[in-house]
């Protein structure tokens, strides 16, 4: 996949992925609407706000323009309704209103729950037709449980939107894999400090570069068509800003792509970039590449970790699994210990037991990630790259004692393995 198309402006926290797939089934098929309903039921539960927390909650609600969401005519009326207990706040808004969060953006809206389900499907966490958890979805859910991001019951003890490095590392890998070309070009065009409105006109360069990176093939026609549509939207925005700045007045814009001329407002022109940019920028906030000047506003600044994060995208996409954990360790200032052949199966065995199927085979990528991330608390951090797992399993499978068996795909790449004699 060259880029993700299902990301949307309300999906702004990496934790939302785990919250969304929390109720995805392991075996019984469901659908997007049902999964979205379960997701909403989980994070939109209502709680009362006591007087000591009313200022915290109201600051968040006013910053995020959520008064209308709670069906009140004004902020003051809503404040009184919350204090009297007439109205209650959603769990997600309660958690995101907590002072000290790196970002308070990312609450789902009524129409966005099913969009997040579709994004999880595109990222590879749930299967396309059945909406059953994929092996990576099972992995992410397991890590999220271990890190107390999700639980059987939502409680106030643990805020899922607190920064959580083991979970972030696990969640960011499939995003990079499926959005690689977009991430690489975006990271190459981000200025040192910017607001959302300031970066939107720069997207024309990013999208042109993205279009060049996508090969022209019979199978990429629709992919490139979507990018060209976004290039046209970005060009219109650039022309609008050059001639009239950020004035709210409608003006006529001519499109060199379609040849049409029409009146548009500035809001109409930058609205498409909310879906394109906000999730990607906020994910970069979560992992530490960007910081926000104010948690509730879309003003960003590169951190000293930005260059390290860029190393993920400087890889060729097929080399991402060669050094993902080494770069992650550098990003979070961790010393590492590289697992060798003699320790390899012991390192992998817990993950193998967790992910093996009825035939005794487990997916290599997910088992490797699980083995590394469940060892996060150790110092130094014991890791093995996924590509090294592939090679060691090939080597072990070729030995006479047949301790290990592997299954390969049609390109002869190993993708599942079995350890003989493990109960």
Write up what this structure looks like.
With 423 residues, the protein is mainly alpha-helical. It folds into three domains: 15-156, no CATH class; 179-314, no CATH class; 334-419, Nucleotidyltransferase, domain 5. Helices cover 49% and strands 10% of the residues. Strands 3-7-6 form a three-stranded antiparallel β-sheet. A hairpin with a 5-residue loop joins strand 11 (404-408) and strand 12 (414-419). Helix 7 (135-146) packs parallel to helix 17 (364-373), helix 11 packs antiparallel against helix 12 (221-244) and helix 12 crosses helix 13. The longest helix has 24 residues, at 221-244. It starts with 14 loop residues before the first helix and ends with a strand. The mean pLDDT is 91.
* Total of domains: 3
Poorly predicted regions are none
Overall form: globular
What is the count of helical runs? 18
The percent range for strand residues is: 5-15%
Q: What is the strand arrangement across the widest sheet?
A: 3-7-6
- Based on secondary structure, the structural category is mainly alpha
Overall radius of gyration: 23 Å
Major sheet summary line? 3 strands, antiparallel
Please report the distance between the alpha carbons of the first and last residues.
37 Å
Order of helices and strands: HHEHHEHHHHHEHHHEEHEEHHEHEHEHEE
How many distinct beta strands? 12
Kindly state the percentage of residues in helix. Answer: 40-55%
What is the residue-mean pLDDT, rounded to a whole number? 91
């Amino acid at each position: 996949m060259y880029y993700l198309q299902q990301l949307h402006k309300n999906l702004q926290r990496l934790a939302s992925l785990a919250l969304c797939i929390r109720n995805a089934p392991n075996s019984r098929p469901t659908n997007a609407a049902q999964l979205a309903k379960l997701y909403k039921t989980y994070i939109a539960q209502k709680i009362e706000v006591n007087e000591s927390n009313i200022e915290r909650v109201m600051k968040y609600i006013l910053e995020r323009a959520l008064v209308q969401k709670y069906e009140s005519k004004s902020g003051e009326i809503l404040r009184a309704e919350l204090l009297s207990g007439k109205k209650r706040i959603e769990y997600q808004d309660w958690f995101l209103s907590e002072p000290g969060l790196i970002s308070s953006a990312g609450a789902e809206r009524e129409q966005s729950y099913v969009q997040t389900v579709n994004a999880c499907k595109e990222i590879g966490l749930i299967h396309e037709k059945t909406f059953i958890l994929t092996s990576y979805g099972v992995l992410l859910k397991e890590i999220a449980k271990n890190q107390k991001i999700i639980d059987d019951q939502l409680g106030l003890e643990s805020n899922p939107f607190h920064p959580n490095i083991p979970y972030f590392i696990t969640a960011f890998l499939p995003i990079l894999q499926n959005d690689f070309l977009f991430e690489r070009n975006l990271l190459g065009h981000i200025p040192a400090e910017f607001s959302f409105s300031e970066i939107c006109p720069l997207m024309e360069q990013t999208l042109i570069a993205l279009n060049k990176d996508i090969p022209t093939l019979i199978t990429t026609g629709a992919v490139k068509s979507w990018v060209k549509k976004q290039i046209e939207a970005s060009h219109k925005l650039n022309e609008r800003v050059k001639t009239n700045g950020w004035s709210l007045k409608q003006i006529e814009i001519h499109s060199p792509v379609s040849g049409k001329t029409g009146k548009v407002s500035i809001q109409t022109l930058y609205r498409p970039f909310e879906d394109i940019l906000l999730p990607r920028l906020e994910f970069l906030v979560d992992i530490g590449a960007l910081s926000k000047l104010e948690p509730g506003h879309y003003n960003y600044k590169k951190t000293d970790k930005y260059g390290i994060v860029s190393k993920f995208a400087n890889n060729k996409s097929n080399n991402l699994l060669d050094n993902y954990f080494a770069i992650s360790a550098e990003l979070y200032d961790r010393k590492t210990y590289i697992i060798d052949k003699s320790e390899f199966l012991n390192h992998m065995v817990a993950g193998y037991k967790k992910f093996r199927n009825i035939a005794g085979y487990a997916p290599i990528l997910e088992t490797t990630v699980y083995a590394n991330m469940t060892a996060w608390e150790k110092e130094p951090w014991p890791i093995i790259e996924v590509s090294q797992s592939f090679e060691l399993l090939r080597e072990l499978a070729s030995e006479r004692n047949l301790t290990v068996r592997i299954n390969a795909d049609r390109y002869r790449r190993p993708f599942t393995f079995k350890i003989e004699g493990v109960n």
